[in-house]
Amino acid sequence: MIQLIIFDIILINKYFMYDFLNDIWKRYDNFDKPVENDRHYNKYIPVCDLIVTKPNENIDNHKNFCMKLVRNLGRYSPTFEFLNFTPEDCTDLNNWVYNSMKKYDIPDNISVKCFQDYIDFVSKINVKTICPYYPYDDMYEEPINIIILKIFESNMNIIQKIVDGTYDYINFPLITYICECIKIYKKMYRQYCRIVDADNAKRKGTCDMLYIFKKAYNSFLFGKIYKNYKIPSLDNDEEEYLSMCQPDAPKLALTKEMAEKIPALQDATQDGERKSDDIPPISTVADENQGSSISRTVSTAVGTMAGASSIIALLYKVTQNCI
After folding, report:
1. Residue 154: inside a domain, yes or no?
2. For 208-251, what is each residue's pLDDT tens digit?
3. Interatomic CA distance for residues 70 and 77, integer angstroms
4. What whole-number distance in Å separates Cα of residue 197 and Cα of residue 116?
5. pTM greater than 0.85
6. Does residue 107 share a domain with residue 123?
7. Which string of DSSP letters, residue by residue, matches 39-55?
8. Are 188 and 121 within one domain?
9. Positions of the region Disordered (predicted)?
10. C-beta separation of 212 from 150 below 8 A
């Protein structure tokens, strides 16, 4: 079974660069914290004994995941925290669930039963805001890419404020972050949405999410004049994309005023190695081997630490386990 480690909290926080994603990582960290010291731990044990019944070599991981999910859903908490679930909370929880299922080879039926236990209870007390289970593998093609784009989309307004700033420096990791997400969008659209099959629910769901992403991207980022950045279109404008996202793009993508300030940042060190604050090479959309290209990009970024963005570290963990 392919092990897809989407959110490696330790790695991402070690090289964390983006404050706007900090709240998300904190929530995932909270979802994943050990359950043994929870004061309601004894309530979770009998529930998961009923849910996880099939003996197997991973039964300890299965039960541990079950108890964490039961805790995170809040069904057995006397504070009724689930009453305050927002759509964003529900999405974050489902993202954590998907990651954990892939990471620890958790059967889908365990998640289904945990959510059903929660839904049965909240339905009886007439709670209107219910967090459903998102079976991502049934909903989308390449769910990992959809999750990555949804994280970007949900933070689009914050990203817009950053690129719209009047700072006298260039956020190179942010450029890398934007470029890699654009690449994912283009690859997904090219593969699944050029011809939409209305009878294919997964493909339709995938294309619907890409449409939402593009609408937000165009609303918040594209088509505006920024002091330090030239944001490329999501449409098939390869030249515009490469002007920002090819290996030598940092100078090319910037406005003339800021590009003139960049050469000093690109001088080689005495041993001819890349400086730690240079942007790592970014692969082009035309490269179909997405896994290896992103791996090459991110290997440099992680190696230089200062150039490692959280989303690229995330992509690196995913693609390294896929190829």
Report:
1. yes
2. 999 999 999 888 878 676 666 777 788 866 666 666 676 555 44
3. 10
4. 31
5. no
6. yes
7. TTHHHHHHHHHHH--S-
8. no
9. 265-291
10. no
DSSP 8-class letter at 264: G
Do 99 and 152 belong together in one domain? no
pLDDT digits (tens, 9 = 90+) for 308-318: 344 444 444 43
Cα 12 to chain centroid distance, Å, stands at 12
**Same domain (yes/no): 169, 99:** no
| Same-domain status, 103 and 199 | no
Instruction: Report how far apart the first and last C-alpha atoms of the chain are (Å, whole number).
Output: 13
> Which residue in this structure is represented by tokens 């011809």?
195
Place of tokens 């999750």: 147
Whether residues 287 and 201 share a domain: the answer is yes
Where does 156-196 have alpha helices with state H?
A: 156-163, 172-192
Structure tokens at 322: 């896929």
Q: How many CA atoms lie within 13 A of 254 on its CB side?
A: 19
- Kindly state whether residues 300 and 265 are assigned to the same domain: yes
Contact 277, 174 (CB under 8 A): no
d(CA 222, CA 178): 12
Residues 179, 121 share a domain:
no
Residue 108 has pLDDT above 70, yes or no: yes
Residue type, 160: Q
Q: Domains in the chain: how many in total?
A: 2
For 30-81, the pLDDT digits (tens) are 999 999 989 899 999 999 999 999 888 889 999 999 999 999 999 888 777 7
In this prediction, residue 185 has a pLDDT band, given cuts at 50, 70 and 90, of very high
The residue range of the domain holding 205 is 139-320
Of 85, 107, 134, the last residue of a domain is 134
Residue 4 lies in a domain: no
How far, in Å, CA of 146 to CA of 148, rounded?
5
Q: Model confidence over 129-173: pLDDT tens digits?
A: 789 999 999 999 999 999 999 998 888 888 888 777 766 666 677
Q: Which of 291, 277, 135, 290 is nearest to 202 (CA)?
A: 135
